[in-house]
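1st attempt posting a full record on here, be nice pls
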Amino acid sequence: MKEITINNETYIKKSEIAEYQPSPFQIVVLHRGWIVVGNVSEKEDKTYIQNASVIRKWGTTQGLGELAEKGKTETTILDKCPDVSTETDNVILVMNCNQENWSNYGK
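the predicted structure (as tokens):
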């Protein structure tokens, strides 16, 4: 990312910054087994997950598909984390979530 400093203030070209664009909740399986849920967007070769949580425990009997469709269960453990960015090559799988069942996430 190119930067320029004017009057001791650093600036970055707007087109080089990933802009937030609301996106549906999705579950993302990343390289080395990390599983993250949040609002997923892509720009160039980067994948961004905002409003993110690492899924530590699925809490399901039918895997990630059940979690994506039905939302978190009483035994699901989500570890809230800052926004995540990764090289898109690190994304193994992206699973769409039932938006209605994830609408109360983070509230």
